TrEMBL record:
InterPro entries: HINT, Histidine_triad_CS, Histidine_triad_HIT, HIT-like, HIT-like_sf. GO terms for molecular function: catalytic activity. It comes from Lotharella globosa. CDD domains: HINT_subgroup. This is HIT domain-containing protein. A motif (Histidine triad motif) lies at residues 99-103.
Length: 118
């Protein structure tokens, strides 16, 4: 995809459709288009920062405040108690979209989310 760099900015702006899960002044969350499990959600700063180390304190705090809340809501909705939070930085670390995002990935059973392993 040629304009992968602006993909999530376009989603925040509503120029590309998404299934919105949460929004405030600094943070946006939406369902992953290619989920590892039902409820797989991406939590992003509205403004684009390529990697986590570039995110300013206020935005980092806003994301940190929302992540547990969203985890609770998603686990309730998916009736799941186990989940992974995944955050990739840089291509070697498997970051595909260069706009910071936290994956919340419900793990309903050992087989779900097979693409994720250590
Ligand atoms: P990463 O490999 O950490 O950069 O993950 C990028 C994630 O973005 C992948 O899980 C993709 O499925 C997801 N993704 C790519 N395009 C879209 C889109 N248009 N809407 C929702 N999720 C997307």
């Amino acid at each position: 995809m040629s304009d992968i760099g602006s993909l999530f900015e376009k989603i925040v702006a509503g120029k590309i459709p998404s299934y919105k899960v949460y929004e405030d002044d600094l943070v946006f969350a939406f369902l992953d288009i290619n989920p590892l499990a039902p409820g797989h959600t991406l939590v992003i700063p509205k403004k684009k920062y390529e990697t986590l180390d570039k995110v300013p304190d206020e935005t980092a705090a806003a994301i940190g405040k929302v992540l547990p809340r969203l985890a609770r809501a998603i686990m309730k909705a998916t009736e799941c108690k186990d989940y992974n939070i995944l955050q990739n930085n840089g291509t070697v670390a498997h970051q595909f979209v260069p706009h910071v995002h936290f994956h919340i990935i419900p793990r309903p059973n050992a087989k779900a989310g097979l693409g994720l392993s250590w």
